[in-house]
Design a protein that fits this description.
Radius of gyration of chain B: 13 Å
Largest sheet of chain B: 6 strands, mixed
Structural class of chain B: mainly beta
Helix content of chain B: under 10%
Distance between the termini of chain A: 37 Å
Shape of chain A: globular
Structural class of chain A: mainly beta
Number of helices of chain B: 0
Number of strands of chain B: 12
Oligomer: heterodimer
Order of helices and strands of chain A: EEEEEEEEEEE
Number of helices of chain A: 0
Largest interface: A-B, 20 and 21 residues
Number of strands of chain A: 11
Radius of gyration of chain A: 13 Å
Order of helices and strands of chain B: EEEEEEEEEEEE
Strand content of chain A: over 45%
Distance between the termini of chain B: 41 Å
Chain lengths: ~120, ~110
């Protein structure tokens, strides 16, 4: 149990375009989802926390107009990188926490974004 | 604010041997949760073990066990009978109820045949 999927697993886009990444909890209802960014050989950096039906809470330094997060249902959250630039190239990971847990997060497999 | 420190950037261990990864944290709270996550080359984050701070008994999961020292704010991970598949980045993480995880910088473990 506690499986989280992400789609796509990798994406290449041109500078100036927008990219949407989906995160789904497959076998549980996720009241809270989290989006992370990970640079090579570094730890995970929390970008934002989203609760189902509410606006996301962004970490300091993360541009909310650039990284749009939607959590419209208990099984789906999306991250849209708007007007992508090469510096947005990174590995993006989502995680989900279920209704019955206040602490444990389960992670998706990640999405590698390359902006040309 | 809570912080998590992993002081060993890289470690290596011979196959079938035992290795211990260190983690310390800083918090003024009394009730919290600690985790070890594994990130193999596939980059999928895998939950290895979870510890509730109010439980004195150390958590174990097969070959993985922790040494939780609450007073010292220490949470080390012991891997017994190391296997090649244990090669990965290991992240120590901390959370309070209903808050995001705070991660350490990670320890890169290599298991050598």
């Amino acid at each position: 149990g506690a499986v989280v999927s992400q789609h796509p697993s990798w994406v290449i886009c041109k500078s100036g375009t927008s990219v949407k990444i989906e995160c789904r909890s497959l076998d549980f209802q996720a009241t809270t989802m989290f989006w992370y960014r990970q640079f090579p050989k570094q730890s995970l950096m929390l970008m934002a926390t989203s609760n189902e039906g509410s606006k996301a809470t962004y970490e300091q330094g993360v541009e909310k107009d650039k990284f749009l997060i939607n959590h419209a249902s208990l099984t789906l959250s999306t991250l849209t990188v708007t007007s992508a630039h090469p510096e947005d190239s990174s590995f993006y990971i989502c995680s989900a926490r279920g209704q019955e847990s206040t602490d444990t997060q389960y992670f998706g497999p990640g999405t590698r974004l390359t902006v040309l | 604010a809570q912080t998590v420190t992993q002081s060993q950037p890289e470690m290596s261990v011979q196959e079938a041997e035992t290795v211990t990864l260190s983690c310390t944290y800083d918090t003024s709270e009394n009730n919290y949760y600690l985790f070890w996550y594994k990130q193999p080359p596939s980059r999928q984050m895998i939950l290895v073990i979870r510890q509730e701070a109010y439980k004195q008994q150390n958590a174990t999961e097969n070959r993985f066990s922790v040494n939780f020292q609450k007073a010292a704010k220490s949470f080390s991970l012991k891997i017994s009978d190391s296997q090649l598949g244990d090669t990965a980045m290991y992240f120590c993480a901390f959370t309070l109820r209903n808050t995001p995880l705070v991660f350490g910088k990670g320890t890169r473990l290599s298991v050598i045949a």
